[in-house]
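Reopening this one. Same input as before:
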Amino acid sequence: DFAPAGLVARIPLVMVVSSTSPYKSVQELIAQAKTRKGQLNFATSGRGTSSHLVLLMLKQLAGAEMNQVPYKGTSQALSALIGGEITAAVPYLNVGLPQIKAGRLRALAVTGAKRTPSMPELPTMIEAGFPGLVITGFAGLLAPARTPQPIVARLHREIVAIGKQQDYIDRLAVFDLQPVASTPQEFSKYLAAEIAKW
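Same output, byte for byte:
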C-alpha cells in the first residue's frame, strides 16, 4: 500500500527499575526472574505496544517467566514503577530519561544496536547478553503505493538534505531521536524484516 521514501530516525527503548530496586544490571534481573518464576512484574504501556514486545522477546531469549502488567500509558506505568508496585519497565528512552536524570529510575540497558549518545555509559541489550534483542521505534516517510519513482527519489533527496541541517539534528537530539537517512530500498528491507520478525 505504500512506497517507502526513507527512514528518518530511530529511538531505542530503555530497561528501567526504580532507583530503590536491588537490581543493578539486566543480568541480575533475569537471574532473579529465573529463580522467582512468575513473580516479577513488568509494566507495559498496553498489549501490543513496543514495551510489551520487548518483554515478550526478552522472556523468549532469557527463558524466564515475567508477568506483564498493562497500563493505559507510559506515564502510568512509570508512576507504578517509581511507587514500587512493579519490578521493571521498558519505555522509550526519551520518555524515561527525565525520571532517570531525576534519580527516580535506574537505567539498565537500551534496546538499540548501539549505545545512545545521551547515556553512553549505558550498555545495550546485546552487551547485556541478549544479541537478538534489538528493538527501536522509528520514523520514516511513506508515499502512496503507485507514487512515480522520480517523486519518491525527490522525497529521499529532501530527507537527506534536511538530515544534514544542524537545527534539525539538534531538534531530534532533544527527543533522543537518532537521525537516519536510508535509501528507499533500505527502508523497504527494514520494514520487511520488522514484519517478518514480529
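So the earlier flakiness isn't reproducible anymore. For the record, The two ends are 19 Å apart (CA to CA).
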